[in-house]
Design a protein that fits this description.
The complex is a heterotrimer of chains A (637), B (257) and C (219). Chain A is 37% helix and 15% strand. Chain A is an alpha/beta fold and 637 residues long. In chain A, the strands form 6 sheets. Chain A has a 5-stranded parallel sheet. A 5-stranded antiparallel sheet of chain A has the order 11-15-14-12-13. The radius of gyration of chain A is 24 Å and the shape is globular. Chain B is built from 8 helices and 7 strands. In chain B, the strands form 2 sheets. A 5-stranded mixed sheet of chain B has the order 2-1-5-3-4. Chains in contact: A-B, B-C. Bound molecules: flavin-adenine dinucleotide, protoporphyrin IX containing FE (2 copies), iron/sulfur cluster, FE3-S4 cluster (F3S) and FE2/S2 (inorganic) cluster. The site of flavin-adenine dinucleotide has 46 residues of chain A, from helix 3, helix 6, strand 6, helix 7 and strand 15.
C-alpha cells in the first residue's frame, strides 16, 4: 500500500498557503455538477457539508440520529482551543503547535498539526460571526480559561456547553444550506457500507432506520465524519450510538486504519454503580483546578472520607507530580488513579474510585464561589449519585473518552482509497497518541470549515468524471451484501441479547487493552475476542423485523463490527512495543513508572490494511519525521 | 425496589397503539430511568418479544434525543432534568408509572415512544441562523458584546431541541422552542440584520407545521430540561410585532443562498 | 402581503390582536365599572353621566364602533386560535398532570363564551331593553334597580358572569402584556400582582351592583 502523506514541500509555516495556491480549483459553474456525500453531522460533518454547500457543491449529508443537531459533538463541555493570544500571555500558533505535538507524545504529523494551529484562529472568528455565545468579559471581549497540558489560557468556552453551541452554529449553517437547496439531509439513515468502483470511493449503502429500506447513494466523492469508536469498550463517555461501523466498513473496502490502539481514558468520570450501568458521565476536567485528588493511605480503609485525617490521606498526584499536581495531563492522571485502586486503596462500594475533594477550596473561597464556578457540575453529580459534593468529596474514576486512532488520511484528509475523505475524530487525527483537552472540537471544525472545502476541490478537479449507475455490478454487490448481513442477524434467533455480547467485549477490552496493557493480556484478548464473535454469530437474538424501526438490529450491526474491530485494536496494541500517550504498555516504563517511548523503532503511524476475514491485517508504516521540534520525554513533574 | 409500568406500545405510525403493563421486580434507585427501560427491554428480548423503542443517545441531558411523558409530566417529576438524567430514586417503591410518547399533530409517533420531531429542524431551517458563509468574517474580538447580552443569549441557546415544551403545552405549541432560538440570535449584534426576516419566517414555519398557539399556561417552561423562560416567548411576540410593522414581503425573495 | 394581514395570518399575530383588543375592552370596563359605581351615589349622578355620554353624539357612536370591532376581532381570533390549538393535539394523553396551568388559564375559552353570552344578554337587558321588565330609555338608574330587584336569577347570572370575568381578566390581564412583548423578569412579578388586583377590583366593582340592589343599598 502506498502511504503518501502528500505533505507539501517548503517551510512549515508556509506549507498550507502554498498548497492552497497549488491546488486545482473547480469552476463555480461546475460545482453544482459534482455530488459529495458527507456521512456524519457532528462538528466535522456539519461544518463540511455546510461549507461545501455554500461553495455550490451538490451535497448529501447523513446521520443516524433524528436530527443532525444531536450528533455526539453536542456533548462536549469544556471548550475549544485557539491560538488567538487574546490574553497576551505568550501564546502563538507555534506554541499551540508545539503543545499539541508534545501532548500527543510525538506521534502526530508535524505539517497537519501546524496547519491545525494556524486555522484555529479562523474558527473562533467564524463561530462568533454565526452567533455562538462564547463567554465574555465585562468589557465585552471574549473570555478564556486554562486547560490541561498548556501553560497559556487559550480555551474559548460557552458555559459548560461549548460543544453544543459550536455544533448548533454548524447545524444552523447546515440548515441554511438545506433551505438554499444545496444540501439534502438524510437523518435516521445509517451507512452500512462503502461503494468502491474502479478503486475510487463512489457512494455508500445505507439503511433507512424508520422504514428499514436499504439503498445506495452515489457521488463523486465520499466524506466520513462519523466520530470515534470509544464505545467498543461498551462503557464510555460517548453517546450510546457512537460506533465504528462506517470507518470499519471503509477499512474492509481497502482504507488503511491508523493507530487503532490509541484511546484516551479521561480521569474524571463518575464511577460505575451497578451491572445495569449504560454509560459513564464525564465530570469536566476544569474541576481539577480546585479539587484535590486523594485516596486513603491504608488499604481497605472503611472509614467515611470525612473521618480520615489529612495525615492518613495520600494526595498522590501532588506527591508524584509536584509541579503540575492535580492538573497533570489526562493519561497520567488516569493511570495514577488506576494504580491507587489496583493497590487496594480505591474508594466507594466497588473500590474503583478515588476522591476529588473540594473541602480545602470551599474553606479558602467559600461555598458561594465554588457554586459559581462549578454549580452545574455539582448538580449533575448529585443528580446521578445522590451525594452532595459540597459536603462529601466526589468519587471519580477514569473512563474511555476519545479515540485518537482512526482511518489513515494524507495531508488532504484523503484516505488510502481515492475519493474517500475522513474528518474529525474518525480520522487517525492530529493528536498523536494523546489528545489535549479542547483540541478535538478545534480539529473537527478545522477539517470541516477550512480544509476539506479546498482539498475536495483539488480531488474533484483532478479526477476525470466516470458516470456510473445503481446498476453497476459493484454497487449491486455492495447492496446485496448489506441485505444479506441484515438477514443473517435477524435469522440467528439465539438466546443472548446484543447488549450482553457488547458488555462482555467491553469488559475484556477494558481489562486487557485499557489504561494499561501488556503482551500476555493482549494475547489473551486475541484468543477470546474471536470466541465471543463466534458465539455472537451463532447465539445472538435480534427480535423484530428488518422492515421498520428496530433498535436491536441497529445495535447488532454495530456490535458485530466492534467484535471484529476490537481484534485490530489489540493487534495494534500488541505490535507497538513502547508506551506513548494513551497507549501504556506496562513492560515499557521508566524506573518511576512513566511511559517510555521508543522513537528509534516506533516513530511511525501504524496503518493497518485489511487482508480478508480470518487473515492477519498487513502493517504499513508512515514514518514520522520531526524537522521542527525536538523529540523529548514528556515531563510534567 | 419494585415498580410497574404502563407503556405506550405502537408498532408503527399506522397502528393504533395501547398501554401495556410491565412489572419490573428489581429496580435499583441508582438506575436512570432509561437504564430501567434497558432492563425491561433485556427481559423482553429474552422472551423473544420486541423491546420498547425509545430515542436516546448522549444520556447526559444534552443531545435532546430522549423524552417521554412520565406519569403525565414531560421528562418526569424532576425539574430541569431530561428523561435520561432522571433517576429511579425519584419514584416510590411499588409505584405505577405511565409512560407515553410526546403527543402533537406535528410529532407523529414512529414507534412506541419514538416520535418524529423533524418539524423543529424545519423551523430552524426557515430562518434560525445568521446568514454568514464560511470565511470572510471579521476578527472575533472586533465586535464587543456586553457580557449581560452574551449571557442572556446563552440562556436561550441552551435549548436542546427535545420537544418537551410542545409535549407539555396544552395547545401543543412550539413557541418556547422557536422563541429560544429567535431570542438567542436577536440578543446578539450579529443577529440584527436578519432579525425581522427571521421572526416572520420562523413563526410562519412554526404555524405551517401545525403547532398550536400560546395561551400562557407556562407548562412548557416547567417541563423544559434547560429551564428556558417563557419570557422568550414574549420577546418573540415583540420581535414579530415589530417585524410586521416594518417588514416588507419582497425582502424575503432571495431565500437563504 | 399587507403587513396587518401578515399579523392576522399567524398564531403570534392573532395573539397580538387579542391583546390589543383586550386592552380596548379592559379600558372600557374600567370606565364602565367606575361609572356604574356612581349608582351608589344616587340616580342623579349616574343618569347625569349617562346623559353626558349620550350628548356626545357621533363620538359615542365612534366609541361603540371601536368597541364592537374590538369585541368581534377578539372573539374571532379566540375562536380561530382555539381551533388551531385543538387541532394541534389530535391524540391526547392518558395521564396528564398540570404543573403550572391555573384554573384561570384553563378556563379562558369557556369563560370567554360565558362573557359573550353575558354581553348579548346585557345589551338586550340594559341598552335595548328587550328583555327588561320595565325599561326606561335614558334612566339607567331605574333600569338597574328594576332589572335586579326581585330578579334573583338575573342577578345571579350577573354575579356568576362577573366571577367568570374576574378569572378571564386574572389570566388575560398578564397575558396581554406578555403577548405584546412587555415581559421582563424584573417586573413580571409586580405586573402579575397588579393585574390580579385590577381584575379583582373590576369584577368586585361590577358584582357590587346587583348585590347592592338586592341588599337594598341601591334603591
Ligand atoms: C463527554 C465528552 C466531552 C468532550 N468535551 C470536549 C471538549 O471540551 N473539548 C474538545 O475539544 N473535545 C471534547 N470532546 C471530544 C469531542 O466532542 C469529539 O471528539 C468531537 O465532537 C467529535 O466530532 P465529530 O464531528 O468527529 O463526530 P461526532 O460528533 O461524533 O459525529 C458523528 C456523526 O456521524 C454520524 N454517524 C456515525 N456513524 C454513522 C453511520 N454508520 N451512518 C450514518 N451516520 C453515522 C452520527 O450520526 C453523527 O452525526 C468530548 C467528548 C466527550 C465524549
Ligand atoms: C369584556 C370583554 C373581554 C375582555 C376585557 C377580554 C380580555 C382579554 C384579554 C386581555 C386577554 C389576553 C389576551 C392575550 O393573551 O394576550 C383575553 C384572552 C382571551 N379572551 Fe378575552 N376578553 C373579553 C371577552 C372575551 C370574549 C367575549 C371571548 C370569547 C368568546 C374571549 C375569549 C378569550 C380567549 C379564548 C382568550 C385566550 C387567549 C387565547 O386563546 O390566545 N374574551 N381576553
Ligand atoms: C353588573 C355589572 C354591570 C352593570 C350594572 C352594567 C350596567 C350597564 C348599564 C346600565 C348600561 C346602559 C348604559 C347606558 O345606556 O347609558 C350598560 C351598557 C353596556 N354595558 Fe354594562 N353593566 C355591567 C357589566 C358589564 C360588563 C361586564 C360588560 C362587558 C363585558 C358590560 C358591557 C356593556 C356594554 C358594551 C354596554 C353598552 C354601552 C353602550 O351603550 O355604548 N357591562 N351597562
Ligand atoms: S425549549 Fe426546552 S423543552 Fe423546548 S425543546 Fe428546547 S430544551 Fe426542550
Ligand atoms: S405551555 Fe403552552 S400556552 Fe404558552 S406558555 Fe407554554 S406555550
Ligand atoms: S439522551 Fe441525550 S438528552 Fe437525554
Amino acid at each position: 500500500m502506498n502511504l503518501d502523506s502528500r505533505v507539501p514541500p517548503g517551510p512549515l509555516a508556509e506549507k498550507w498557503d502554498h498548497h492552497k495556491f497549488d491546488m486545482k480549483l473547480v469552476n463555480p459553474a461546475n460545482k453544482r455538477k459534482y455530488s459529495v456525500i458527507v456521512v456524519g453531522s457532528g462538528l466535522a460533518g456539519a461544518s463540511a457539508a455546510a461549507t461545501m454547500g455554500e461553495l455550490g457543491y451538490n451535497v448529501s449529508c447523513f446521520c443516524f440520529q433524528d436530527s443532525p443537531r444531536r450528533a455526539h459533538s453536542i456533548a462536549a463541555q469544556g471548550g475549544i482551543n485557539a491560538a488567538k493570544n487574546y490574553q497576551n500571555d505568550g501564546d502563538s500558533i507555534w506554541r499551540l503547535f508545539y503543545d499539541t505535538i508534545k501532548g500527543g507524545d510525538f506521534r502526530s504529523r508535524e505539517a497537519n498539526v501546524y496547519r491545525l494551529a494556524q486555522i484555529s484562529v479562523n474558527i473562533i472568528d467564524q463561530c462568533v460571526a454565526q452567533g455562538v455565545p462564547f463567554a465574555r468579559e465585562y468589557g465585552g471581549l471574549l473570555a478564556n480559561r486554562s486547560f490541561g497540558g498548556a501553560q497559556v489560557s487559550r480555551t474559548f468556552y460557552a458555559r459548560g456547553q461549548t460543544g453544543q453551541q459550536l455544533l448548533l452554529g454548524a447545524y444552523q449553517a447546515l440548515e441554511r444550506q438545506m433551505a438554499a437547496g444545496t444540501v439534502t439531509m438524510f437523518p435516521r439513515t445509517e451507512m452500512l457500507d462503502l461503494v468502491v468502483v474502479n478503486g475510487k470511493a463512489r457512494g455508500i449503502v445505507v439503511r433507512n432506520l424508520i422504514t428499514g429500506e436499504v439503498s445506495t447513494h452515489l457521488a463523486d466523492a465520499v466524506i466520513l465524519a462519523t466520530g470515534g469508536y470509544g464505545n467498543v469498550f461498551y462503557l464510555s463517555t460517548n453517546a450510546k450510538g457512537c460506533n465504528v461501523t462506517a470507518g470499519f466498513r471503509a477499512y474492509k473496502r481497502g482504507a488503511a486504519f491508523g493507530n487503532p490502539c490509541y484511546t484516551q481514558i479521561h480521569p474524571t468520570c463518575i464511577p460505575v454503580s451497578g451491572e445495569y450501568q449504560s454509560k459513564l458521565t464525564l465530570m469536566s476536567e476544569s474541576l481539577r483546578n480546585d479539587g484535590r485528588v486523594w485516596v486513603p493511605k491504608q488499604q481497605g480503609d472503611q472509614r467515611g472520607p470525612r473521618d480520615i485525617p489529612d495525615a492518613e490521606r495520600d494526595y498522590y498526584l501532588e506527591r508524584k507530580y509536584p509541579s503540575y499536581g492535580n492538573l497533570s495531563p489526562r493519561d497520567i492522571a488516569s493511570r495514577a488513579a488506576k494504580e491507587a485502586c489496583d493497590g487496594g486503596r480505591g474508594v466507594g462500594e466497588t473500590g474503583l474510585g478515588v476522591y476529588l475533594d473540594f473541602r480545602d477550596a470551599i474553606q479558602r473561597y467559600g461555598e458561594q464561589k465554588i457554586r459559581e464556578r462549578y454549580g452545574n457540575l455539582f448538580e449533575m453529580y448529585q443528580r446521578i449519585t445522590d451525594e452532595d459534593p459540597y459536603k462529601l468529596p466526589m468519587r471519580i474514576y477514569p473512563a474511555v473518552h476519545y479515540t485518537m486512532g482512526g482511518l489513515w488520511v494524507d495531508y488532504n484528509l484523503m484516505s488510502s482509497i481515492p475519493g474517500l475523505h475522513v474528518l474529525g475524530e474518525a480520522n487517525f487525527s492530529d493528536h498523536g497518541a494523546n489528545r489535549l483537552g479542547a483540541s478535538a472540537l478545534m480539529q473537527g471544525l478545522a477539517d470541516g470549515y477550512f480544509v476539506i472545502p479546498y482539498t475536495i476541490g483539488d480531488y474533484l478537479a483532478r479526477t476525470p468524471p466516470e458516470p456510473i449507475t445503481l446498476e453497476h455490478p459493484d454497487v449491486r454487490a455492495a447492496e446485496q451484501a448489506v441485505r444479506a448481513r441484515i438477514g443473517r442477524l435477524l435469522s440467528i434467533k439465539g438466546s443472548r441479547s446484543v447488549d450482553s455480547f457488547h458488555r462482555e467485549l467491553g469488559k475484556l477490552l477494558w481489562d486487557k487493552c485499557g489504561m494499561a496493557r501488556d503482551a500476555a493480556g493482549l494475547k489473551e484478548a486475541l484468543v477470546k475476542i474471536p470466541a465471543i464473535r463466534e458465539e455472537f454469530w451463532r447465539n445472538v437474538t435480534v427480535p423484530g423485523s428488518g422492515s421498520d424501526l428496530n433498535q436491536s438490529l441497529e445495535r447488532a450491526g454495530r456490535v458485530a463490527d466492534f467484535l471484529e474491530f476490537a481484534e485490530l485494536m489489540c493487534v495494534d496494541a500488541l505490535h507497538r512495543e513502547e508506551s506513548c500517550g494513551g497507549h501504556f504498555r506496562t513492560e515499557y516504563q521508566t524506573a518511576d513508572g512513566e511511559a517510555e517511548r521508543d522513537d528509534d523503532h516506533f516513530a511511525y503511524v501504524a496503518a493497518w490494511e485489511y487482508q480478508g476475514d480470518n487473515r492477519a491485517p498487513a502493517l504499513n508504516k508512515e514514518p514520522l519525521e520531526f524537522e521542527n521540534v525536538h523529540l523529548a520525554q514528556r515531563s510534567y513533574k | 425496589m419494585k415498580i410497574s409500568l404502563k407503556v405506550w406500545r405502537q408498532r408503527s405510525a399506522g397502528d393504533s397503539g395501547r398501554l401495556v403493563r410491565y412489572e419490573v421486580p428489581s429496580v435499583s434507585p441508582d438506575m436512570s430511568f432509561l437504564e430501567m427501560l434497558d432492563v425491561v427491554n433485556e427481559g423482553l428480548t429474552a422472551k423473544g418479544e420486541e423491546p420498547i423503542a425509545f430515542d436516546h443517545d448522549c444520556r447526559e441531558g444534552i443531545c435532546g434525543s430522549c423524552g417521554v411523558m412520565i406519569d403525565g409530566v414531560a421528562h418526569g417529576p424532576m425539574k430541569g432534568t431530561a428523561t435520561c438524567q432522571l433517576h429511579m430514586r425519584s419514584f416510590a417503591d411499588g409505584a405505577e408509572i405511565v409512560v407515553e410518547p410526546w403527543r402533537a399533530r406535528a410529532f407523529g409517533v414512529v414507534k412506541d415512544l419514538v416520535v418524529n420531531r423533524g418539524a423543529l429542524d424545519r423551523i430552524i431551517q426557515a430562518g434560525g441562523y445568521i446568514g454568514v458563509s464560511t470565511g470572510g468574517v471579521p476578527d472575533a474580538n472586533a465586535l464587543p458584546i456586553p457580557k449581560s447580552a452574551a449571557d442572556l443569549a446563552m440562556d436561550a441557546a441552551a435549548c436542546i431541541g427535545c420537544g418537551a415544551c410542545v409535549a407539555a403545552c396544552p395547545n401543543a405549541s412550539a413557541m418556547l422552542f422557536t422563541s429560544a432560538k429567535m431570542g438567542h440570535l436577536s440578543m446578539l449584534p450579529q443577529g440584527q440584520t436578519e432579525r425581522s426576516r427571521r421572526a416572520v419566517a420562523m413563526v410562519d414555519r412554526m404555524d405551517q407545521e401545525g403547532f398550536g398557539g400560546c395561551t400562557w399556561h407556562g407548562e412548557c417552561q416547567e417541563a423544559c430540561p434547560k429551564q428556558i423562560s417563557i419570557d422568550w416567548i414574549s420577546r418573540m411576540q415583540r420581535d414579530y410585532f415589530t417585524a410586521c410593522l416594518s417588514f416588507r414581503a419582497d425582502t424575503t425573495g432571495d431565500g437563504a443562498g | 402581503m399587507h403587513r396587518l394581514l401578515a399579523l392576522y395570518r399567524s398564531t403570534v399575530g392573532k395573539k397580538i390582536i387579542m391583546a390589543v383588543t383586550g386592552i380596548i375592552l379592559i379600558g372600557f370596563l374600567v370606565t364602565h365599572v367606575v361609572a356604574n359605581l356612581l349608582s351608589f351615589q344616587g340616580p342623579a349622578k349616574l343618569n347625569g353621566y349617562s346623559a353626558f355620554l349620550h350628548s356626545t353624539g357621533e363620538l359615542l357612536w365612534l366609541a361603540r364602533g371601536v368597541l364592537l370591532l374590538a369585541l368581534i376581532l377578539h372573539v374571532l381570533a379566540a375562536y380561530q386560535l382555539t381551533r388551531l390549538d385543538r387541532a394541534a393535539r389530535p391524540v391526547g394523553y392518558q395521564r396528564k398532570v398540570p404543573q403550572s396551568a391555573t384554573i384561570a388559564s384553563r378556563t379562558m375559552r369557556w369563560g370567554g363564551v360565558l362573557l359573550l353570552a353575558f354581553i348579548i344578554f346585557h345589551l338586550l337587558h340594559f341598552t335595548l331593553g328587550t328583555v327588561h321588565p320595565s325599561f326606561v330609555d335614558g334612566d339607567p338608574y331605574h333600569n338597574i334597580v328594576a332589572g335586579f330587584q326581585g330578579h334573583p336569577l338575573v342577578s345571579g347570572f350577573y354575579i356568576v358572569a362577573m366571577v367568570g370575568l374576574g378569572l378571564h381578566l386574572y389570566h388575560g390581564g398578564s397575558a396581554m402584556f406578555q403577548s405584546l412583548g412587555l415581559s421582563h423578569p424584573s417586573w413580571n412579578h409586580d405586573r402579575q400582582r397588579l393585574m390580579r388586583i385590577v381584575a379583582g377590583l373590576v369584577a368586585l366593582g361590577f358584582a357590587a351592583i346587583p348585590i347592592g340592589v338586592m341588599l337594598g343599598a341601591i334603591r
